[in-house]
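QUALITY CONTROL LOG
STEP: pairwise intake check
CHECKER ROLE: data steward
CRITERIA: each record must contain a sequence immediately followed by its structure tokens, with no blank fields

ENTRY 1 OF 2
RESULT FIELD BELOW
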Amino acid sequence: MYVGYRYYATTGRDVQFPFGHGLSYTTFELTASSLRRDGDAVLVEATIANTGARDGAEVVQVYLHAPGDDRPALELAGFAKLDVAAGGMATATIRVPLQHLRYYSERHGRRLIEGGVHTLHIGFSSADLRDSLQVELAAEIEYDLLEPRSTLKEWQEHPTGRHLLQEAFTGTSSFLNDPAHAKLVEQIPLAQFLALTGGVDAAALQDLADRANDSR
């Protein structure tokens, strides 16, 4: 995680050639920027002006600073190359899928989006950031797709799968409803465990898995 520009940005170390740096025969300025949600993504719009006397190209870069435990200070979230005539302007729309904002949390043991304010920095390199925009996102935890062969632990950790099991097997298996008992068999595939304790219709168990996955 802490490799290259992520390490240097997090530790505050200066480098001679920052990540994303490039030379040009002209100069550019960021003149406007905006951010909006678009379904399962965040759209960043950035307008740049070629303030030099020659035509040229610039790469507009978006870096993420996100809340959460043990995150780098900067993470590249998206970029777009613009060709701009001398004295002209151009606008880039950079789509940042929410999926790209997920990270693996040691605390939760799975990938998630940390709830809170996420800052998106816009610039021309990791050390040349011209503007910052913020968006507040709700926490989203990524759960694996459930199957009949998923372990009892995976079913119990899934918010919908856990409730479906409790509803379907209330009064039939204390192991499924008693956390102390469930701990003893948490690594056993659910289908195998239910077969050992009296069996269950395979189609019904698959239906439970489908309902749990549809809630994602």
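ENTRY 2 OF 2
RESULT FIELD BELOW
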Amino acid sequence: MSAFTDSSTHLGLPYIQPAQAQKHVTHNEGVRRLDALVHLAVLSATVTSPPASIEGARYLVPAAATGLWSGQPEGTLAIYEGGAWVFLMPHAGWLTFVQDTGTQLVFDGATWGAAGGGDMQNLDQVGVQTTADAVNRLAVASDAVLLTHAGAGHQVKVNKAALTDTASLLFQTGFSGRAEMGTTGTDDFGIKVSADGTTFTTALRTEAATGRVHLPGNDVRFDGPYCIGDRRPNITVSATWNLANTSGGNLQRLVDGTMGQHVWSNGTDQSGRHIQFDLVEPQQISEFRLQFSANHTTTIKTVIRAANDPTGPWLTLSAPVSWADMMSGGVVTLPATPLQPFAHYRIHAVSGIETNPPWFNGIEMATQG
């Protein structure tokens, strides 16, 4: 060495000087320093007042320390040796285990911080109690996963690159898919189910452009106080009924093929002009199809209402529909969504009332059941 110093660079261990007397004193001081710093572990980093003195006890001095630690810089290493507190300033890169918290800290040259934290951005994989892989780059094994707000609302976002890609939630049993919901291969929202994880059946699809809901399986089950059992919409209409007059009359039986008589009439009430159909027995009518000799251009809008007691409240089964919007090939299709069979139905005008009910030449009705 070019210039002989009194102590070592990193740990400040005292050197024995040439021709020094009582060399054992310097040697023993160096040994004590090594004993204090090698495999460094402190009792606490948060105790602010020096505790009862125990030989060899080590602490990191926190901010606002008191007593014999008062005035020491935050993060200083306090060591009780030979009946007195000795203070050492740490160097960048020092590590220590904190016993009362069970954590490991590293000194960065200014403060102590959690060891091993590092840069948490752009990690390749993260596994919590399980192993992540190249496909499942985030993997968590736990009883539950909590995503909470930061003071207001909270969104979970599943983003895909292109329309034909998939953004979905997949529910599995034994790592085999059983249900999937999301936008799979399209921007329409769908729910699919599977019994084997291989063949999936679409149970529901909602069009992204219109919000229209489709039940592709054509098989709906209602279980509740109003209706129990399978209800399969029958979209094959077997007959058309001409309305020969405007004052009311009889209609043939509905689309199930049996024959009977159903009465229709027109009238008004506090809700406006309507045409009422009184059925021989309750039916679940899923559609009314109104026939015209030419495309209808009127501005009339109607809703479908139903009741089992015509003197009581009428349940609205559809949103207002513009006939002009629903016209195709001289036929206006008016959808209804009954949850139970009804004996009485009304096509109820909410705007643009026609002057000559029944406003159309013929009618078809499709039933559920």
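INTAKE CHECK: passed for both entries
DESCRIPTIVE NOTE, ENTRY 2: The chain has three domains: 39-114, 158-217, 241-368.
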